[in-house]
């Protein structure tokens, strides 16, 4: 199981954070957290329920993470393991996560897949999203998986969709010309865009797109001297334009 303590900072204040696996005793806090983070008009039926949370603990308890600040419940992150083929990236959030029940978890898979990341608005500014992401990176390394992956919303895209294709807009985000609260945050955590998936989720702001954002295990993806192969896996070495592969 996972347990770590570290200090976190907001402005000039320092607080102790505990990152650990959540348990059945945390279910009420997890549900309250979601209600605070996703208030109406966000559909209440899309928030976690106790049955879904129970399945997280049944299928992959190591991927069920939460963070506390000074003993107060402040955020959570849930993941599962899947077998991912980068050459066939198309999927939906509902299909790959089993509508959030993660009965699709495959202990023999190669990819840690992010189901959900949620931070209480009261604790924003502590960079707890990055803290939880780093914990998940550590799980990837611990389990010797190839990567962490997950689909990110791109809520600013609807504002520019008439002017840019989704690939063009993400390139502008990676160049810093534009910013998006979700994709820019994921870039800051160390993840990179793999491809954009149409129909990933129903989301008017994102024009129904999800952007698959990847973090590769550096111990599994070290280039050899020639730069043409990676230890343990062969893949095409390309200039940084990963979205072209998903067109």
Element layout with pairings:
Layout: E1 3-10, E2 13-21, H1 27-37, H2 50-59, E3 64-69, E4 72-82, H3 93-97, E5 111-119, H4 128-142, E6 147-152, H5 166-175, H6 183-188, E7 192-198, E8 209-216
Parallel strand pairs: 5-6
Antiparallel strand pairs: 1-2, 2-3, 3-4, 4-5, 6-8, 7-8
Structure description:
With 247 residues, the protein is α+β, with helices and mostly antiparallel strands. It folds into 2 domains: 145 residues, Gcn5-related N-acetyltransferase (GNAT) (Aminopeptidase, 3-Layer(aba) Sandwich); 97 residues, no CATH class. Helix content is 23%, strand content 26%. The protein contains 6 helices and 8 strands. Strands 1-2-3-4-5-6-8-7 form an 8-stranded mixed beta sheet, sandwiched between helices. A hairpin with a 2-residue loop joins strand 3 and strand 4. The termini are far apart. About 8% of the residues have low confidence.
Query: Which radius of gyration do the C-alpha atoms yield?
Result: 18 Å
Average pLDDT across residues? 90
- Helical content (DSSP H or I, runs of 4+): 10-25%
> Which strand order do you get reading across the main beta sheet?
1-2-3-4-5-6-8-7
Strand content: 25-35%
Quick take:
This protein is α+β, with helices and mostly antiparallel strands and 247 residues long. The chain has helices at 27-37, 50-59, 93-97, 128-142, 166-175, 183-188; strands at 3-10, 13-21, 64-69, 72-82, 111-119, 147-152, 192-198, 209-216.
Keywords, separated by commas or semicolons:
247 residues, 2 domains, Aminopeptidase, alpha+beta, 6 helices
């Amino acid at each position: 199981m996972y347990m770590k303590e570290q200090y976190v900072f907001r402005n000039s204040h320092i607080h102790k954070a505990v990152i650990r696996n959540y348990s059945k005793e945390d279910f009420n806090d997890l549900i309250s957290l979601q209600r605070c983070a996703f208030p109406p008009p966000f559909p209440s039926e899309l928030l976690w329920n106790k049955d879904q949370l129970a399945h997280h603990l049944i299928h992959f308890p190591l991927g069920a993470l939460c963070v506390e600040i000074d003993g107060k419940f402040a955020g959570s992150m849930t993941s599962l393991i899947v077998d991912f083929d980068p050459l066939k990236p198309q999927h939906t959030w509902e299909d790959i996560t089993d509508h959030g029940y993660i009965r699709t978890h495959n202990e023999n898979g190669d990819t840690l897949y992010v189901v959900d990341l949620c931070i209480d608005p009261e604790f924003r500014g502590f960079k707890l999203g990055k803290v939880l992401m780093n914990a998940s990176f550590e799980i990837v390394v611990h389990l010797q998986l190839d990567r962490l992956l997950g689909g990110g919303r791109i809520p600013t895209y609807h504002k520019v969709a008439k002017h840019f294709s989704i690939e063009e807009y993400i390139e502008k985000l990676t160049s810093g010309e534009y910013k998006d609260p979700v994709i820019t945050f994921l870039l800051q955590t160390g993840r990179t865009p793999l491809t954009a998936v149409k129909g990933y989720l129903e989301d008017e702001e994102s024009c129904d797109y999800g952007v698959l954002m990847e973090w590769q295990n550096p111990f599994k993806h070290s280039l050899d001297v020639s730069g043409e192969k990676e230890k343990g896996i062969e893949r095409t070495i390309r200039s940084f334009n990963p979205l072209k592969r998903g067109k």
